[in-house]
Amino acid sequence: MRGDPGTDRLTVDLPRSRVHTEFAASDLAERKAELATSVAVVIPALNEEATVGRVVEVLQATLVDTHNLIDELVVVDADSTDRTAERARAAGAHVVRQSSILPEAGPARGKGEALWKGLAATSGDLVVFIDADIHDIGAQFVVGLLGPLLTDPDVAFTKATYDRPLIVDGDTRDVGGGRVTELMARPLITTFWPQLAWLAQPLSGEYAGRRALFESLPFVCGYGVELGLLVDIAERHGAEAITQVDLGRRTHDHQSLDALGRMAAEILHTALVRLQAHDRMVVTDPLATALPQPVRDAAGMLTMVEHEVTHEERPPLNEWRATH
Fold first, then answer.
1. What's the rounded mean pLDDT across residues 57-69?
2. pLDDT, tens digit (0-9, with 9 covering 90-100), for 125-141
3. Cα–Cα distance between 9 and 300 in angstroms, integer?
4. Pairing mode, if any, of strands 290-296 and 302-308?
C-alpha cells in the first residue's frame, strides 16, 4: 500500500493478479494435453437468445475447433421461454435443460442453481463458468481464466476482472457498470473479509476452478452465489488460493434499478448467513423474505410492491451425491 502524492488516496497493490495477454490458447492446449486434463465450460442462460449464440459460436470456433482447449461446451438452459436453447444448440453447444439435471434434487430458482446443475452435468477436471450475455465475447474469457490453473498447481480458483462500461439509452459510457458491486458487494467485503478487498470485480460471472474445489462448496441458488463462493474459498483455503485475471473489458445489458435492488438484497442475505455460520455475527430474527419497493400506480399514487427475497443453497455436490 502506498500514498499518491498530493492526494488523500492510498494505492493498494494487487496480489496474485494476472493479465489474459500472458497466456496463449495454443500453449495452454499443449499444457492441457501434457497434464492429461480436461476442461468444461458451463454457460448458464435464461432468456438470452440475443447473445448466447454469439458467445457459443466464438468459443466453439476458437477454443474447440481450432485449439482443442475446451472438451465440454455446455449451456444450461434455465427453462427459458425464448429461443435460447435453439440458438445455443445451433452454434455448437451441448444444451441441457436445467430441470432435467438431477431431477431428484427437486427444483430451485436462480443463477446459482444453474451453476450447480451445470457442474453436475459435466465431468471436466477444470470448470469455467461464463455468462451468456457478453456482447464483446472473445477467447480471452476462457484462456485468461484457464492460464493460471494450467500453469500453477497452487492456484485453485481464478476470478475475472475487467472494465465495465455502462450503456444508457444506447450511449456507452466507459465507466459506471457494476453498480451492485460498488454499492453493496465491495463495501461488505472490505468490512468483513478484507483479505478479499483486492478483488476488483468480486461479483463477476466469469471464473474457473478445479472440479474438486467446486464440488466441495455449497452453491447459493440466487444472485449471492458469487459472494458465497468467494467467501467460502477464502475461509476454507485462504485467499492465496485465488488468482485474479484481467480480461480487459466486458459489455452487457443492464438491469433496472429495481432489479439491482433485489440483487443487492440477496447478496446482503448471503453475507449475513456466512457471517453467522462462521460465528462472526448473531442474527436473532429470521431474515426478511420480502423487499418492499416504491412504485406509482396508474393514478400517480405512491405505493409499495413487495418482491420475494429468499436465501436458498445447494449442498456441496460431493456431499449430495454421497447421500443420493
1. 98
2. 999 999 999 999 999 99
3. 45
4. antiparallel
What is the Cα–Cα distance from 83 to 304, expressed in whole angstroms? 34
CA angle 182, 159, 237 (to 5 degrees): 105
pTM score: 0.91
Nearest to 132 by CA among 40, 55, 225: 55
User: With pLDDT > 70 as the criterion, what percentage of the chain qualifies?
Assistant: 91
Grid coordinates given for 104? 431428484
Given this model, what pLDDT does residue 171 score?
62
Sheet holding 17-19, edge to edge: 17-19, 242-249, 157-163, 207-210, 126-129, 39-45, 72-77, 94-97
Are the beta carbons of 197 and 189 closer than 8 angstroms? Answer: yes
18 touches 148 (CB < 8 A): yes
Judged by average pLDDT, the poorest of 121-130, 141-150, 258-267 is: 258-267
Long-range interactions of 63-68: CB distance < 8 A, separation 24+: 63/25, 63/139, 63/142, 63/143, 64/92, 66/25, 67/25, 67/26, 67/28, 67/29, 68/29
Cβ-contact 165, 251 below 8 angstroms: yes
